[in-house]
Write a structure and sequence with these properties.
This protein is mainly α. It has one domain. Helices cover 70% and strands 3% of the residues. The chain is built from 15 helices and 4 strands.
Amino acid sequence: MSTVETMALAGGILLFIISFASTQIALYILIFSMLLGPELVVGATAGATLGRGVTLRVDDFILVIIGFSWLARMAIYKELGFFLRTPLNRPIAVYITVCLVATLLGALSGRVNLKTGFFFVLKYFEYMVVYFMVVNHLQDKKQIRYFLWALLFTCVVVSFFGISQIPGGGRVSAPFEGEVGEPNTFGGYLLFMMAITIGLVLTSNLWKDRLIYGGIFAIAFIPFLFTESRGSYLAFFPMLAAFVWLSEKRKLVLLSLLFLLALLPLVAPQAVKQRVSYTFTQRYHPGQHVEVGNVRLDTSTSARLWSWRAALRDFPRHPLIGFGVTGYSFLDAQFPRVLVETGLVGLIAFLLVLRAIFKQGIIVFGQVHDPLRRGISMGFLAGFIGLLVHAVGANTFIIVRIMEPFWFVAGMVVMIPELEASLSGEGHDAPAE
C-alpha cells in the first residue's frame, strides 16, 4: 500500500470515528467539503452515458463515510431512530424505488450496464442522505444559525476563489474542478446561495445584518457573472421575481428588480455581454439545429433544446419506466433526462418530490415569524424556483455540488416548525405528512 493510500485510509478511519462521536462535527465537515473537495475521474463509464469518466470528489467519499457512521450510530443507539418522519420521506422513497426498478429492468434488457447504472443511481441520491442527517440531528434554533453561517462562509471562500480567476480570462468555476471546470454548476450553486442572502436581507430587522448579508450577495454576484452561464442568468430573474411574490415589501423589491434590469446592460462586463449575444450571433456551424425566426441559436443552446426533442421522440419506446439510468445517451437537461431514463412513472414521481419541497416550503414560510428563519425559508423558496429554471438546460437536481447545499437547507427549513413547537411547549411531533 502506497503512502497516499495509507494516509487516505487513516483519514477515512479518523473521519468515521469523529462522525460516529459527533454528528454535528460531521455535518460541519460536510458543509466545508461541499465546494472545497477535489475531484477524481475514475476510468470510463460503461453503458450509453457519455463515454466520460465517472467523476468522484472528496466530498463523495466523505459523505459515504459520514453516512455509514451515522447509520452505525443510529443502529447502536436505537432510541435516536433512523429516519424522522417528514413530508418529503414518501416522495423521495417512491422516486428512488422507480429509479432502481427502471435501471434494473434496463439492465435485464441489455440497455444498462448494471454496475454503472447502480453506481449512478447511488450518486443521484447521495445528497439526500444530507437531508436525512440534518432533519434527524437538528434539535435547537442555534444549530440553524451556526449551520447557516458555515454555509455562507463556504460561499464567500469559493466566491473569492472565483474572483481570483477573473484576471486570467475565461469562465470561472468552483475550486478543484479538474482540468475542465463546470461554470454552469458553479452558477447554479451561487444562484441558490444568493437567494438565501436576499431572503435574509429582506427579513432582517438590523441594518448591520443587512449589510453583512448584502455584502455576501455582492461577493457571490461577481463570480456569478463571470461563470458566463446563460442557464444561470436565465434562472436569476425568476429567482428575483419570486421575492416580489414572497416579500411583504413587494413594491420595494419590484422597483429594485426593474432598476437592476435597466442597470445591467450598462454595467455588465464585456465578457458577459459577448456571452449572451453569442447565443444569437455565432457563425454558422453544423451543430446549430435550432432557429428562432431567421436567427440560428448557437451550438450549445441548440444541443440543449435538441435534447428535449430527442427525448420526446424516443421515450415512447419505453414510455412507462424508461430506458433506465444511464440507459440512454447523455442529456444535459433535467426534465427530459428524467422522462427518458425513468419514463412517465419516474417523471411523475420526480414531480411529486418537487411538489412536496415547494409545498413544505410554502407551509413553513407561512408559519414562521422569526426574521432569520423566515429569511432562510423565503430564500430557499426563491432559490428553488430559480433552480427549476436552471434545470431546463442542466441536470441541476442530480449535480452534487448544487444539491448538497440545497438538501442541507431543505432539511433546516423542514425542521423549523418542529423546533418552533418544541421550544414553545407545543410538543415534539415531527411535521405531519
